[in-house]
Design a protein that fits this description.
Length: 285
């Protein structure tokens, strides 16, 4: 079996130093569509270094996403075909606000391997800390098609009961035609998001947007709409990737308030609200 669950979980973590500057943060925000209108004070907090706030989802690209999913797929006990790999979900827990510039230690390991029958799920955990202590913990849920069925632990279900009633807020966010080209400069160089020929080989008629770009755009919409633009209120952010997004489309972000959390569902407007992000929760103070 290409995945040895026990060996993968027992493998020693990989540790490395990551650094980022205000330029990395600004580039990430621009890749999410920030800065429109360019002189809007609410947008300047994402684009102007003198008043810069860091959207917590920046944690997914800080240090160019190091150690990263590809690094995790080369861990002991894991030998898989990248063509069978899908990014199934992402969760982020903030231990304190992310500074606009920093140097930290990132420690990556495979925290769990689940047997879903027709697929294996690898939970790739990255814990980041600087000299003052823990900053954030990132979990990427990676589906590897065709690698399940060995009788292992199925793991928890990511599916949540649908929110009751109509959403409290609905906003739409247009994705620019060149947005994937800009977002990939933050570290995800997968040609699936830029090269039409490569996208066709992967089964798409054109390049698709990074799932983590949609993830960041959605968090920005929630922060700006329901959290008063205060990025420091976010405590955790979890989602399941339910479908692809194409540059040029429009995201419809539906939000339901609850005590200490916002439930979110995201669809593609031009495709009859085809699901994009599901089972999405932003916990906050």
């Amino acid at each position: 079996m290409p995945i040895d669950a026990a060996k993968a979980v027992a493998a020693p973590p990989r540790t490395g130093e990551i650094t980022w500057s205000h330029k990395d943060v600004q580039l990430y925000h621009l890749g999410l569509g920030a800065g429109v209108p360019a002189t809007d004070p609410d947008e300047l907090r994402y684009t102007l270094e003198s008043r810069l706030h860091v959207l917590p989802s920046f944690a997914t690209v800080a240090g160019a996403g190091s150690p990263g999913v590809i690094s995790g797929l080369s861990m002991p006990g894991v030998d898989v075909d990248l063509a069978r790999v899908l990014h199934g979900g992402q969760s982020l827990r903030l231990h304190r606000p992310i500074p606009a510039e920093g140097t930290a230690t990132a420690t990556g390991r495979i925290a769990a391997v689940y047997d879903k029958g027709t697929a294996a799920v690898l939970v790739m955990r990255t814990e980041v800390a600087d000299a003052e202590g823990p900053l954030w913990t990132n979990d990427a849920q990676i589906f590897v098609r065709g690698e399940g069925g060995w009788g292992g632990d199925r793991g928890p279900s990511a599916r949540l009961e649908a929110p009751a009633g109509p959403p409290d807020k609905v906003v739409e966010r247009r994705i620019r035609e060149e947005q994937a080209l800009l977002y990939r400069l933050s570290g995800d160089w997968n040609p699936l998001h830029a090269d039409p020929e490569f996208a066709k080989l992967a089964g798409f008629d054109r390049p698709i947007l990074h799932g983590l770009c949609t993830y960041g755009m959605t968090l920005k919409a929630v922060v700006d709409t329901l959290l008063g633009g205060d990025v420091t209120r976010v405590r955790s952010y979890t989602t399941r990737f339910a479908g692809v997004v194409f540059p040029g489309e429009t995201l419809r972000v539906r939000m339901w308030r609850s005590d200490g959390a916002v439930r979110v569902a995201v669809g593609a407007v031009e495709r009859d609200d085809a699901p994009v992000l599901a089972d999405t929760v932003v916990e906050h103070v």
